[in-house]
Every structure is written in structure tokens, then in C-alpha cells.
């Protein structure tokens, strides 16, 4: 008597037919696709994962709340410029610190337009001396950097949430 040998593969396979055009006729290409199947998770593993996710979410929320408290305790910085721009253009404040986009204009904060063509940035910035520039964002997304060296922003130590550091810019030069 001859016994048939049956081999069990550790992975499941399936046949897939893929139709491809070939000139005026269609040809069918058969290929074998190996599909790895992950072992099913036990209930204990699922409970552990859910518990870890809940702990991680709680820690993330606590860190966010802590950062919001820290930001609220910083002094307010107000930077303004009076300058008329074309329709669709806007001013941004770009600086070395995260609050000013780390010198990446795409993520830097926009200044808000107000009466009399006054553009204003208001934000809470940590104490220290920081470098920044103003940039003009064109309607097509192009960025025009102001000329000259970086500006200096001094936020004194010991200032709190009720203190305001105000800067009025009057001497901005853009490339011709």
C-alpha cells in the first residue's frame, strides 16, 4: 500500500488572475500570491493592548494639559506692521522657535489683517532672545523674505501671562 504524503505549508496561498491588455487581445497571467497570516490574538493579549492604549492616551492628555498650562503662563508677544499688500497676499512671522515655525514659512503663523492695513501677530512666547523675520506670502504660495539680518525678539525673564511685549515694525525692505 502506498501512502500519500500531505505537506502543510505554514502560510496560506491563493491564486490570482490578472488580466492585462496585449495589443488587440487580452492575455491572462496567473500568479500565486503568498499571504502571510498572523496568529490570532488571545483575549488576554487583546485586553493588555487595550489597557496599554488607555494608559498611553491618559499620559498624552496629561502632557497636553501640562503644555497648555505652560503656554498660558508665558507673556503675550504682539508684533505689528502697517503695510498695504495686494489682494491675496498676507504677512507671516517666521522664527527659530517652534511658536514661529522654526524658520519654515509653511508652518509659521499668519499675521491678522486689521483696519488701516495693520497686520498683527499675537502669541505666547517663552522668555529668551529669539531671531525672526517677516515674510510675505503671495497668492500662489510663493514666499518673499524680508531683506537684511534676522530681527531680535527679547522676551524678558520674569514676565507672566498679564505682561505684553509689543513690537511695531516700521522698517521692512522686500527685494525689488
TrEMBL record:
Q: Which GO terms describe its molecular function?
A: starch binding
Pfam families of this UniProt entry? Answer: CBM_20 (PF00686)
Any GO CC annotation of this UniProt entry: membrane
Q: Which domain of life is it from?
A: Eukaryota
Q: Which InterPro entries does this entry report, sorted A to Z?
A: Carb-bd-like_fold, CBM20, Ig-like_fold
SMART domains, per the entry: CBM_2
Domain CBM20: from-to ranges: 71-172
Please name the PANTHER family in this protein's record.
Answer: STARCH-BINDING DOMAIN-CONTAINING PROTEIN 1
Kindly provide the name given to this protein in its UniProt entry: CBM20 domain-containing protein
Amino acid at each position: 500500500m502506498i501512502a500519500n504524503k500531505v505537506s502543510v505549508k505554514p502560510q496560506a496561498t491563493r491564486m490570482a488572475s490578472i488580466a492585462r491588455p496585449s495589443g488587440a487581445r487580452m492575455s491572462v497571467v496567473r500568479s500565486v500570491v503568498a499571504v502571510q497570516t498572523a496568529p490570532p490574538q488571545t483575549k488576554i493579549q487583546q485586553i493588555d493592548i487595550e489597557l496599554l492604549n488607555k494608559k498611553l492616551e491618559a499620559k498624552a492628555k496629561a502632557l497636553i494639559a501640562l503644555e497648555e498650562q505652560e503656554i498660558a503662563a508665558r507673556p503675550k508677544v504682539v508684533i505689528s506692521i502697517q503695510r498695504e499688500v495686494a489682494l491675496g497676499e498676507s504677512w507671516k512671522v517666521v522664527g527659530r522657535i517652534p511658536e514661529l515655525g522654526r524658520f519654515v514659512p509653511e508652518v509659521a503663523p499668519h499675521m491678522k489683517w486689521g483696519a488701516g492695513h495693520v497686520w498683527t501677530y499675537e502669541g505666547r512666547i517663552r522668555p529668551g532672545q529669539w531671531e525672526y523675520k517677516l515674510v510675505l506670502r503671495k497668492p500662489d504660495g510663493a514666499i518673499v523674505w524680508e531683506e537684511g539680518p534676522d530681527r531680535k525678539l527679547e522676551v524678558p525673564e520674569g514676565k507672566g501671562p498679564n505682561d505684553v511685549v509689543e513690537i511695531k515694525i516700521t522698517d521692512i525692505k522686500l527685494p525689488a
